[in-house]
């Protein structure tokens, strides 16, 4: 096989599926202090809570955008995984300076602490739709 030049590839965003995307976007906006840069209402035939939203890092910060889109047949993931259950196919890792303070903040924003905590220096939490995310030092 002939070698070819690698095309230009840039990760620009991460998309999370949700049954209530604009509500979940509001949670992440509170948690991260990121502004919601774009929102779309529900499409034809969709429930009023459907739609799409995009968060972006504040001015002066870099990083990919976080999109939250409506999934008609969304199933809350189970973590840790269990046979035959919907698994979390990805999760967010969020660096923090003070783990205890960050966990308290996340809970005030609407997250819940996972019962299973697999390692020291990392805390697994769930967003309101059940997606796990990790806070770490």
TrEMBL record:
Looking up InterPro entries in the UniProt record yields:
Glyas_Bleomycin-R_OHBP_Dase (IPR029068), Glyoxalase_6 (IPR041581)
What protein does this entry describe? Glyoxalase-like domain-containing protein
The cross-references to PANTHER family, in alphabetical order and at most eight, read: CONSERVED PROTEIN (PTHR35908:SF1), HYPOTHETICAL FUSION PROTEIN (PTHR35908)
Query: Domain of life, per the record?
Result: Bacteria
Q: Where is the Glyoxalase-like domain?
A: 15-136
Gene3D superfamilies per the record? 2,3-Dihydroxybiphenyl 1,2-Dioxygenase, domain 1
* Annotated Pfam families: Glyoxalase_6 (PF18029)
